[in-house]
Amino acid sequence: MARTTVARRPNAGTKGVPRADREEQIVLAATAVFGSQGFAATSVADVAERAGISKPLIYNYFGSKEGLFTACLHRAGAMLAEEMERIARGDAVGLERALRTLEGIFTLLEPQPWIWRLFFDPTIPRGEERIAAEIAHYTDRITALADEGVREMMRLAGADDPLDVSALTSAWLSVADSLVSWWLDHPEETPASMTARCLRLFHVVLGAPLPSALTAD
Amino acid sequence: MARTTVARRPNAGTKGVPRADREEQIVLAATAVFGSQGFAATSVADVAERAGISKPLIYNYFGSKEGLFTACLHRAGAMLAEEMERIARGDAVGLERALRTLEGIFTLLEPQPWIWRLFFDPTIPRGEERIAAEIAHYTDRITALADEGVREMMRLAGADDPLDVSALTSAWLSVADSLVSWWLDHPEETPASMTARCLRLFHVVLGAPLPSALTAD
DNA sequence: GGGATATGACTCGCGGGTAAGTTACCACCG
DNA sequence: CGGTGGTAACTTACCCGCGAGTCATATCCC
Questions:
Q1: What is the pTM of this model?
Q2: Nearest 5°: phi and psi at B51?
Q3: What structural domains does chain B harbor?
Q4: Which pLDDT tens digit goes with each residue over A72-130?
Q5: C-alpha to C-alpha distance for A154 and A173, rounded to whole angstroms
Q6: Could you tell me which residues of chain B have a Cβ less than 8 Å from any Cβ in chain A?
């Protein structure tokens, strides 16, 4: 009867999963929950349950809810920025570049479409310096690419008002966002069919035939 | 010294503000806070403080946080839907109608630009039936108008795929959203200057001169 | 007095965060 | 080869503050 002071903990103990693997698994689960519900509406216990582990393990590895979110931002931002920079380094310009960028985004986001949402979450508490810095870093990189494309397009059209460029860049990023959202509501679409649909929509909106380069894959 | 059982409550009692006035004042404050911080990140005490009254009065008038939010949705949705339906009843079509709609939105949102956000808040807990119904009602009305305009435009361009219409409607609404957001970051802009900017941007994106009717006010 | 307007001071659950302990594995010693 | 200590991987059970929601009361005016 001396054992009464020692609680039984049948599920405790290591399961042999290396820290790096477990961290990735947790970040994946957290990204999904944060991305679909928003930061404030997500509890760490939710993430733990979805990841199939317990809450303290998350705190052991990430320190805090903010630390976990920052890790999600880091992963998602790096993926997005690198893909878009890779496309920007290609030789596509103007609308072809826009379409190629959308294609890249769709392909990248197919397995986990919520990624995008992390960077536009209004429920992140202000004054969280680490989070704000991480978001700024990646949105700056992505916005710089979009801005460059928009500025080139406007220059060709004879317009160069900096505020106009800024507003149109914002609108363009939002279009990309909305198309991803629309895709979320139509899960039967593939990256290829989404890209084809965007090609048709460009055609309609621009009211003129597109360069033939766009129709070839 | 028998008064020790009776707490002093110097600020209690009526201030002579009729319920209807007070309710409107509270809804205004709540809309601002909900719209800028999101539902989950907003506390009822925040709203009370901003409205200059106490928390129990909110519960007395609106019953719950969800009831308060529903009242905000009701007010904002009615304003937006009625304004857009008023414009739709006019004789503008195609791009002119689009620009007139944006103009109406900008004018309507100038005093309280957060209104728009209430309808795209991912932090609203699922399973809140009253909120979901209220949002669905107004977004359906607004989406129906946008869908009608987009369908007409696509028909003229020889396209009529229903899913294409759906996706383009989503993109168009998102463009309106992003322009409002951009405006939030550039508070020196007026509704008129925003409308003029949109006209220029339409011109650039469409790559062709606009109908002269658009340039006249 | 009584109804409408109003509030200070509570309760209570939820969620961020922690303390302390448990189990598995491995390196090393004999 | 068996013990043995160290460490990494994990959990249960808890603390505690914050915020939703309530109660009892206070003030005003007719």
A1: 0.88
A2: -80, -10
A3: 2-206 (1.10.357.10)
A4: 999 999 999 999 999 999 988 888 888 999 999 999 988 888 898 899 898 999 888 99
A5: 16
A6: 36-41, 117, 122-123, 125, 153-154, 157, 159, 161, 163-164, 166-168, 170-171, 173-175, 177-179, 181-182, 186, 197, 200-201, 203-208
